[in-house]
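retry 2 of 3: previous attempt timed out while embedding nickel (II) ion. Reduced batch size to 1 and resubmitted. Inputs unchanged:
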Amino acid sequence: MATEFFADVPDRIRYAGLSSTDPFSFKVYDPDRMVLGKRMEDQLRIAVCLWHSFNWPGTDVFGSGTFDRPWLNDRDPMQGARDKLAAAFEFLEKLGTPFFCFHDRDVAPEGRTFVETRANLEAITDDIEHRMQRSGKRLLWGTANLFSHPRYAAGAATNPDPDVFAYAAAQVKLMLEVTHRLGGANYVLWGGREGYETLLNTDLAREEQQLARFLALVAEHKARIGFTGTLLLEPKPQEPTKHQYDYDTATVSGFLERHGLADEYRVNIEGNHATLAGHSFQHEVATALALGTFGSIDINRGDPQNGWDTDQFPNSVDELALPMYEIFRAGGFTTGGFNFDTKLRRQSLARDDLFHAHIGGIDTLARGLLVAAEMIEDGELQRRREERYAGWSGALGRAILDGDRSLADLAEAVERDGLDPRAVSGRQELLENVVNQRIWSVGEDA
Ligand code: XLS
Ligand code: NI
Ligand code: NI
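retry 2 succeeded.
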């Protein structure tokens, strides 16, 4: 495919400001604008995903693909893979964002044997490497697809058959090496089928041990090859399995502690997975930060009217302002970033729809960042939160936390000092007003 695929899209999507009427321009995302001491581009670290955006034909459970993705129908799958990369890099260069993410199977087809599959991936990796060198694009993370092929129907690491465990290990070893070779900033493991359909045929304790062993092997191999990126687990409560083991951030963090893996892994939090787990996106981010496991974000949203992973592009600053406040008040990303793990709607079948979706999502993130920065810089939320806990800096609070008071000591103090604490206002509505005021006022200057 020598010709441009997105021929109707300008060579570069540029910042044009809120008054621009050009749909192929950013209204808020201004890569060089300094926010909280860094360029906006370096704060947001935006990635495009090669699965939903380039390897998915727009199928749903009732119907076939609607999208115009000619490379998916090539009779020579390696030629199709190369054309797909050409289109993806054209997209990345025109969009102008720095990163991309992919699974092994997004970029290279399976062969008849594992040896052939490996050769395919290695050949395509050469191609990716050249394209990265030419374009300056970087790999936010790589991952292995351990869920699509029928061999993984009963899980990968948690499969009842150790041969499947071995196969998954071979696949992750290779993809970790590819990610290392391409200078990936992270490596992700999403436990797509690490879970169960029915407890009638499932040994929970055994499967937990298998999963822990697998993750320990991955961490060992990471050290062996000298990969310095971060290993990330991506929590999700269900879908495709009825119940997935990596249910949410708290579950994953507990699992890591239990198996001595807490220093090796962090989490990749996905907006829509948070809501599927019955949490808010802010809750998942805040929990990861509180537990010291925050790593990266798959940015998307669900639909409040249904309960599955609709992977829609983010479009609400109101929804993103608070999760972003959590991330940036904690200092922002280190190796992580915002990966657009997002799907177009099945009717969005024009080639340029992929641009409009990303442009809108990126502008929403940019605006969310500005709101978060405002809330961090003016410090009102932080000050009010600190005031709420001020008692813990006093003599009694410190003595309790330092372990200097027993239950009996405390009971004695209550009687001796006549303690009679009264409830104080949590000020929720006032705090919500503070947030809304920032959401409404940021950008007024633009
Ligand atoms: C699926 C997951 C998947 C991971 C990568 O729900 O979000 O896309 O991010 O395997
Ligand atoms: Ni994801
Ligand atoms: Ni998802």
